[in-house]
């Protein structure tokens, strides 16, 4: 690694500390994604995300991207299935990100979403791995499970083993909202950082939705077709409880509205033409006045 001698006054950290260009952006030991769901679901999350408080160039969403969190251990990183950071530029100094380096970005993710896979429960759910999801009925009697001494010490100075996802998100990055979704059981769980520790938030099993007041947006399970696949998907909804449309859906909706407006305008013209014909006006004159072709006019009932 190249070290930069500090002048007086010192250079800012982004000029002297490792950047995404200095750190690996992929692990040859872990090529590709676990399955198609890990490809499509993050896309749907990003394409339905609308934040009223932030312009589109002032937040960033990443998926399966190296997230570097410890300047003392440059080889340590996590790869969230999906995360949202707000108050940061969409681009890193004008460039697409290779990774997300916390000491360069200065903003930790605000939301992290992990997709539970068989065998990853302990890594993804930490002390909640063996607990039942919290519902509105059970939340009154729920408290955070106790961490073992070994787990709570994991990742501290002197430990060779990197901390778990749970430790990184809760203790190091202090991510306000950590969300875990199991696509096999369609189970959604949300953990909110309260007093320095994650507390599971109650979610109705019959209508799995959660609201994030700081962002004025909600996340829930939507049954529908995306990428040609009909299933339950994680999707954002707005303050009116409407599912937020993707860019493609918005374009289709706009095209449908324009088609309906055009049909309504043509129907009004045809009615005008019919009234003029009934007054005794010739077809050629009606065509000239309305802009309709004579063949269109001749198709009007009664002509």
Q: What is the count of β-strands? A: 12
Principal-axes geometry comes out as elongated
The helical percent reads: 25-40%
Q: What oligomeric state is this? A: single chain
Share in β-strands: 15-25%
Instruction: Outline the low-pLDDT stretches.
Output: 146-158
- Cα gyration radius (Å): 28 Å
The number of helices is: 9
For the terminal residues, how far apart are their CA atoms?
A: 86 Å
Write the layout of secondary structure elements.
Elements: H1 13-16, H2 37-47, E1 59-62, E2 67-68, E3 77-78, E4 82-86, E5 100-101, H3 102-105, E6 111-116, H4 121-125, H5 149-153, H6 165-172, E7 177-182, E8 187-194, E9 197-201, E10 209-212, E11 217-226, E12 229-237, H7 247-278, H8 283-290, H9 294-298
Parallel strand pairs: 2-5, 6-7
Antiparallel strand pairs: 1-4, 2-3, 4-6, 7-8, 8-9, 10-11, 11-12
Helix pairs in contact: 7-8
Structure commentary:
The chain is of the alpha+beta class and 303 residues long. The protein contains nine helices and twelve strands. The protein has helices at 13-16, 37-47, 102-105, 121-125, 149-153, 165-172, 247-278, 283-290, 294-298, and strands at residues 59-62, 67-68, 77-78, 82-86, 100-101, 111-116, 177-182, 187-194, 197-201, 209-212, 217-226, 229-237. The strands form three sheets. A six-stranded mixed β-sheet has the order 1-4-6-7-8-9. A hairpin with a 2-residue loop joins strand 8 and strand 9 (197-201). The protein is elongated, with a radius of gyration of 28 Å.
